[in-house]
Amino acid sequence: MLEMRPNCECCDLDLPPDSNEAMICTFECTFCRDCAEKRFYGVCPNCGGEFTRRPIRERRLLAKYPASSKRVYNSGCADFVGRTQLSRR
């Protein structure tokens, strides 16, 4: 089951479980759509995997299977930008 992390790991934007803006990789690294597409060009800076839109968990299931409340934030994510751009060339 997906953790459904509550924020973007780069800009710390809130990403509630019903957000259409949450993007994840196969390791569930979680970023907002803006960071995933414009900052990292679709490549996860943590693992090199591709991003896909995180599915939305139905509200009725959130009571039984709640989203994670653990925030993951990397204040140095801007350091990954150059490396990500170079790996796409």
Radius of gyration based on Cα positions: 13 Å
**In what order do the strands lie side by side in the largest sheet?**
2-1-3
Helix content: 10-25%
- Tell the overall outline: globular
Secondary-structure element order, N to C: EEHEHH
User: How would you state the average pLDDT, rounded?
Assistant: 89
Strand runs, count? 3
Q: What does the largest sheet look like?
A: 3 strands, antiparallel
Proportion of residues in extended strands: 5-15%
Q: Give the count of structural domains.
A: 1
End-to-end Cα distance, whole Å, is: 34 Å
> How many individual helices?
3
Poorly predicted ranges (pLDDT <50, ≥5 residues)?
84-89
Structural class estimated from helices and strands:
alpha+beta
Describe the structure concisely.
The protein has one domain (22-87).
What's the SSE blueprint?
Layout lengths: L21 E3 L5 E3 H7 L12 E2 L5 H4 L17 H8 L2
Antiparallel strand pairs: 1-2, 1-3
Keywords for this structure?
89 residues; alpha+beta; 3-stranded antiparallel beta sheet; 9% strand; globular; disordered C terminus
Characterization of the model:
The model is unreliable at 84-89 (pLDDT under 50). Strands 2-1-3 form a three-stranded antiparallel β-sheet. The longest helix has 8 residues, at 80-87. It has one domain (22-87). The protein has three helices and three strands; from the N terminus they run ββαβαα. The protein has 89 residues and is of the alpha+beta class. Strand 1 and strand 2 (30-32) form a beta hairpin.
